[in-house]
Amino acid sequence: MASAARYLGRSALFMARRGPIAIPYRSFSATTPTFASEDPPVPPPPREPRPEELPPVAEYSPDLLTEQERSMYDMLSPEEQEQFNAENRRMVEEFNDPRKRAAAFAEIEKSVNDIEREIPLRFDETRTRKLGFWGEEEDDEFCHVEDADEDFHDDDITSMAHAQLEVHREIREYARIAAWDMPLLSKLAKPFTLPPPTHILRFRYTTYMGESHPAENKIVVELCSQDLTPKYLSEAQRQTFLKLVGPRYNPDTDIVRMSCEKFATRAQNKRYLGDIIDTLIKEAKEGDAFTDVPLDLRHHKPKPKLRFPDSWKMTEERKKQIEARRADRLRQEKERAGIVDGKTVIADAIKILPALNPALKAKATEEREKVAVRVAGKAQKKRLR
Amino acid sequence: MPPRLNLFNARAAVPVLRHPSSNISRPSIVTSIGINRPTSHGLHPGLPSSTRMDKRWNSSASGGDGSERPKGPTEDPLPHVSEEAAEIAKIMNKKCDGTAASPELEQGTPVSEILQRDKEAQKHMPKVMQDQIKSSTGTRSFSTSTRQSQAELHDQGKSVDEQTAAMVANMISQVNQQAEELHPGLKFGPVEPLPKTENFRTRYDSLLEQFTKLLMTDGKLSMAQRNMAFILDHLRTASPPQPNPKRPLLPGPPAPQLPLNPVLYLTLIVDSVAPLLKLRQQKGLVGGGASVQIPVPLALRQRRRTAIRWIIDASDKRRDSHFAQRVAHELVAVAEGRSGVWDKREQQHKLGTASRSNLAGNRR
Amino acid sequence: MVSSFCWSCMTRLRPTPRAVLPPPVAAPRAASFHTSTVRYALPAKKKASLDGPPKFREAKSARMKKKKPVEKSRPPSVGERKALRKRIVLSNPNALEVEGMQDLSSENMVDARLRGSVLGLPVPMLTQLRAVEAFKPKQGWSIFRRPGTVVRRETLELGRFIDGISNEGKDKGRSAKKIVTGVRGSGKTVHLLQAMAMAFTKQWVVFTVPEPQDLVIAHTSYAPLSDDTPHLYVQNDATAAMLSRTVTANEQVLKNLHISQQHPALKSSAKAGMTLEELAKLGIQDPAIAWPVFQALWSELTATSPAPGFDKGFKPRPPMLVTVDGLSHWMKNSEYRSADFDPIHAHDLMFVRHFLSLLKPGSEKPALPNGGLLLYATSASNNPTIYSFEVALKQIAARQAGLNASAPEFPQADPYSKADKRVIDAFDSAKPTIAKEGILELQTLGGLTRDEARGFMEYFARSGLLREKINDAWVGEKWSLAGGGVIGELEKLGRRLRVVN
After folding, report:
1. Minimum CA–CA partner of C93 in chain B
2. Cα angle C207-C210-C213, degrees, rounded to a multiple of 5
3. Do residues B155 and B15 share a domain?
4. Which of A22, A46, B200, B257 lies most in the core, judged by the most C-beta atoms within 10 Å?
5. pLDDT tens readout for residues A335-378
6. ipTM, interface predicted TM-score of the complex
7. Using an 8 Å Cβ cutoff, are C253 and C316 in contact?
């Protein structure tokens, strides 16, 4: 090791003694460098007009009001209008008087200065600390406590208890509403009446209980296609209408349903849907009838509803019927001559059939043998003779 | 304590009465264990006894000799039925003078005990019992056949001993009547439980179910059930077996009647070749790390399982193209004594007998 | 930024004098642990290979051990398994003989008192029924002593109808066309069997197609009918098989009938004075002319009067029964391909076309002019789902109920479902113009009534197969379990032996 270090060191020494190596510099471009021209001087910002330089305001009259203000103005009662006019006139007058105007502006200036002095604005930037890759120095967001006052004087409940208390307050508030205000709602209740036959469209609005939601402006319209006949469409035209609406038609319930959330407001969407229906009806009346195209219901998969047959419903009459039938059956059963019992059938067969009963078979063979023996005996006798 | 005799237990003697022929083969039951000790043999319900009766029977059995030995942890510590009945009667009748309601309930009468010590009474004792004592030598006192469904087995031979059955039924009804009188609190008789096969989970016969499950491969139960149906149909339609007298099936209906009840047929076949024991290889009984064989008795289900496995294994050597057909033919071969399963069983039993001596080592 | 340390500068570096560079390392300079000189291991000698010179052209990878061939027993011989599958056993010698079971005869087939009882099939007729393949292997004939069928309401109606056609009377020469449907196991095939048995008792001629599927799965030979009609195909082997079925089953009838028409298609082979049996056997012997022979036979059997020159010994032709079991296989493209390898529709097969054309009413004479019955059954177990066929069946039912085809309630195929027009047209038969010809009907078989079910279960018990007491409660339970008396389910329940203990 030592020797290796030594000889490296020697070569380094040699290199050092040679002195610096001169390296000629050569630029890549041949043209002389030019510099960008200086930015034009920034013109000083226009000075704010002094209060006395402002143009005078025109004499007040209600006609000068904007449209919105005008509508507000029209809603006021005559006395209030009078009061409003007087006030406005006075303000205009004060503005047009240069002395008063200067005083007013001075006063505004002064109050602004006061505020600035009281709450000085600091524009020192808080330096964002660089976090490491693991972000170990990062403040834990969940450690942030609502009230960061360090000195606790033992005279209050904890913040969590405060939160709990807040919950109770909220509950009580709603309880109060339910107890006192909600009964009053019944005064506003109207009895339900069926929608008149002219109202064949049903619009559905959606509210998300005070929360904002992207689908808030969506409107859905439903209509029963049978309602359109015969007032708006003939039967043939209704078929055309159904062909036009396509998969928006549900043949089970005979309802056409469409929705729109194209536009920002509900009213616009509703208007759009209404227009669409108008157009459809118009098209169904006047346009191509599409008689050569059959109504396409492929989009709809009818849901099989399994039900017990109606004849199974248990009514008094049916009960009686069943009882009578049962009694009848019982009677017939009693009258019946022979009830077949599989066990007795087999037992009887065993008693009779020699194929099933070895005892019977043995007896039969025995008898046969007896006969045979007798015959044989006779034969022997004969032979003896 | 000697076993007692009461009227409930008196039925235990009935099979003895009914089976003079079978006494010759298994004669020592009564003498060796006691007259009123019910045995597997005694569970012979050729009579129209209900399940309820069987239960009583069993309870009396546990009381009969249960008192002789120390009771196991799972055994019922309740007293004997008659004692219990007597106690209940005592409570019901509110007789505090110590006399029981009926004398025979107070305590079972130890007839066998009386007979043992009384020579005079022995002379006058029933002929059957005398026969029992005379022929009480030689043969074994236990059955080597698997018999659970004896009810159905002996259904056939009903007419043979109808008279005795009627007599016994009469006795039973009397006892029942007495028992009913003893229990005035019951308005209706106890509900008879449904037969086991009435439950939809156990709708098939237990052997049939076991056989089907053993036929099953890869968890395909419905396939196995189809095979089982084929086998049963084959047993139903094939010509009745020609039994081999050297290898008879268990006693049952005569062979020509077997196809009419394929389930019984199958049960008889399987139970006839079911081995009694298996051989366990046990190490460390003798020195040197050598293992010895020890015969271990098998329970009913285990015995059947072994037999079914043997039958299915033997069927693999057959040449029929269908599995179910192979098994069916093998079953018929077993019924006719042609199958190798019989040899297997004999071999197993021979080995078991030979290795009985190893059991002594086991006890150390 | 380009490095100022450029390549030319590097090259201008003078080479370092040799003296300053370290000498090439020959041996480690550092003191080694050993004082002895370094010695290297001898170069490894090549291993002397054990078996001769190196091998070329051989796999050098590790050799996998070959599996020992498993000892297999001889595979079952050809056709053995199929024979076992198709085996039909009609008798169980172990079952008990049912006392007092009557045989089906021409007298009792109209006897309403026998409803609910089981009528045995006459033993001599069994060969005929086997010939026309009336029995199917999965039916439970094999557990009874001898085959028998239940007399149900539909059977009695059928019996009355067949009796009416055969006997002299106003119904003589009538014909009816029925399509038999029903749920699985409802006895459609057995209904056809009963019809065949009755037809045999009445000396009818019976044509059957027991397995329509066999004609369309490309298992039998096929050929274009003629050069004029290249899109129509005949199946000669299948036709010959049908002729042989017909001849075996109807030998007695066909023997007594003689040729009465001109058969130019057969040229010289059909001679005058030939019996129809001999005529049919021509087709069996030479399947190449099976189709013309079949047509000739058909024209002979549907003849009402002899052609001029054949007047001698003309006998009126008997009524005919035509059955097809499992119709829906004929309602789609077959597995056959045309020369252009396009699928051939089943209706382009002449065999199928002939039997389907019988459903249409005849123009000047009925499809079956001598009277008879067309019974075409659907199958519920081996059954392709064909939408257009379902619609066609609905249309038949509607037409039967008297609905006009132009009525709005008349069931029509969904226009977007690509329904097969040919199928719907095949069943679109107008009301027949000829009085004796019946309209195409749809007959739906349901369950048995409770009384019929009771008779059926009693048959089981009396055969010694069922160890139960056949009382009303028990039958009611099984009747409900069998889906309201579906006979196939009842049979399953009946053959399941239950051992109660």
Report:
1. B237
2. 125
3. yes
4. B257
5. 888 888 888 999 999 998 888 888 888 888 887 777 666 555 55
6. 0.79
7. no
* Residues of chain A positioned with their CB less than 8 A from the CB of C143: none
In which residue are the tokens 């205000």 written? A181
Do residues B86 and B221 share a domain? no
Hey, how many other C-beta atoms are within 10 angstroms of the C-beta on A192?
Answer: 6
Helix (H, G, I), strand (E, B) or coil at C374: strand
The whole-model pTM stands at 0.67
In sequence order, what are the residues at sequence separation of 6 or more whose Cβ sits closer than 8 angstroms to the Cβ of residue A372? Answer: none
pLDDT, tens only, C396-435: 999 999 888 888 899 999 899 899 999 999 998 878 777 7
Residue bearing tokens 């052997």:
B207
C-alpha span between C402 and C179 (Å, rounded): 17
Smallest Cα–Cα separation from C330: which of C379, C369, C295? C379
| Number of domains making up chain B | 2
CATH architecture of structural domain A202-286 = 2-Layer Sandwich (3.30)
What is the Cβ-side half-sphere exposure of residue B5, based on CA atoms within 13 angstroms?
A: 14
Residue from B44, B45, B74, B78 nearest B59 by CA: B78
User: Residue B210 has which token pair?
Assistant: 């076991």
Q: Is residue B195 part of a domain?
A: no
Q: Are residues B231 and B301 in the same domain?
A: yes
End-to-end CA distance of chain B: 31
Domain ranges in chain A are 81-107, 202-286
C90 CA: distance to closest CA in chain A (Å): 20
Write out the H or E segment, with its range, that includes residue C213. helix C213-216
Among A10, A341, A357, most C C-beta atoms within 10 A, so best to mutate, is A341
- From first CA to last CA, the distance across chain C in angstroms is 102
User: Rg of chain C over CA atoms, in angstroms?
Assistant: 39
Q: Give the range of the structural domain holding residue B208, as residue numbers without chain letter.
A: 200-363
Looking at the fold, whether B178 and B208 belong to one and the same domain comes out as: no
Provide, as residue numbers in chain A, all residues whose Cβ is less than 8 Å from the Cβ of C461: 340-342, 345
Tokens in use for A316? 């008094």
Q: Are residues B26 and B84 in the same domain?
A: yes
3 state SS of C143: helix
